[in-house]
């Protein structure tokens, strides 16, 4: 049994980028899909696809993004902030800026999963899931 599926998602993406894999496969969940959608919207991954193999368990295939010249990954930092043992909640006034605005923070709010910038616009706080740069 996995105690922290979000941390597992982030680790699989980090490890895949470290060995320059083109595609990473993770088990499906709605929260993971929402996080991956935010990553795609902000250009950190190329694409994703939900796949149902013969076993019947849905998975998400994530196409990682690299710089065509330097072959560097688009994701340089991917950290889990809130974890099952210590949840981190952030009000609308205390949502952190990542790399002075060059990165994004991903929050789970009452209006869904969104970036810190959008949460400030919507005037909602929530659980700070991870930071990406």
Q: Could you please describe the fold and organization of this structure?
A:
With 133 residues, the chain is α+β, with helices and mostly antiparallel strands. The protein has one domain: Dna Ligase, domain 1 (2-Layer Sandwich). It contains three helices and eight strands. Strands 4, 5, 6, 7 and 8 form a five-stranded antiparallel beta sheet that branches. Strands 1-3-2 form a three-stranded antiparallel beta sheet, with helices on one face. The longest helix has 14 residues, at 5-18. The two termini are 30 Å apart.
What does the secondary structure layout of this molecule look like, with pairings?
Layout: H1 5-18, E1 23-27, H2 30-41, E2 45-51, E3 59-64, E4 78-80, E5 89-90, E6 104-109, E7 112-115, H3 116-122, E8 126-132
Antiparallel strand pairs: 1-3, 2-3, 4-8, 5-8, 6-7, 6-8
